[in-house]
Write a structure and sequence with these properties.
By secondary structure, the protein is an all-beta fold. About 5% of the residues lie in helices and about 35% in strands. It has a single domain (about 10-120), classed as Deoxyuridine triphosphatase (dUTPase) (Deoxyuridine 5'-Triphosphate Nucleotidohydrolase, Chain A, Distorted Sandwich), CATH 2.70.40.10. The strands form 4 sheets. A 4-stranded antiparallel beta sheet has the order 2-11-6-8, with no helix packed on it. The termini are far apart.
Length: about 140
């Protein structure tokens, strides 16, 4: 049996769409642009409105991530988190990763994905020592990958 939660989504204006999963196996929900006219994206960050606001529960991390289909074209959405106390419009920042890349965003285009993850309560405490591991303090490519 599935443990589905409910998240309220408010459609702020005509043409706004509820985020949707593209397939039954998708972990993310596609997020759609809600525009009056086209927006051109280049290397400078551009904020794209979605026409939706959400009520995210305190125990959920609503992560905004790039879409692989746009990334393949050199266009990325900035990674972000939708905080549980924010009730304004969900805005997605897009940019092209190269100087020669241009992309036109039209109303209804899929521009990002929303991934919902359960959080757990944690307390951060100061420690004088940490447990040993095989990797230790090696980072930034230290595993050879």
């Amino acid at each position: 049996m599935s443990d589905l939660g409910t998240i309220k989504v408010k459609l702020l204006r005509e043409g706004a769409r509820l985020p949707e999963r593209a397939t039954a196996g998708s972990s993310g929900f596609d997020v759609y642009a809600c525009l009056q006219g086209d927006i051109e994206v280049g290397q400078a960050p551009v904020i794209i409105p979605t026409g939706i606001a959400m009520e995210v529960p305190h125990d959920v991390d609503a992560q905004l991530r790039p879409r692989s289909g746009l990334a393949k074209q050199g266009v990325l959405a900035t990674f972000g988190t939708l905080d549980s106390d924010y009730r304004g419009e969900l805005l997605i920042t897009l940019y092209a990763i190269g100087p020669g890349i241009r992309h036109t965003v039209r109303h209804g285009d899929r521009i990002a994905q929303l991934v919902l993850v359960r959080l757990f309560a944690a307390e951060l405490v100061v420690a004088l020592e940490l447990s040993e591991t095989g990797r230790g303090a090696g980072g930034h490519g230290s595993t050879g990958r």
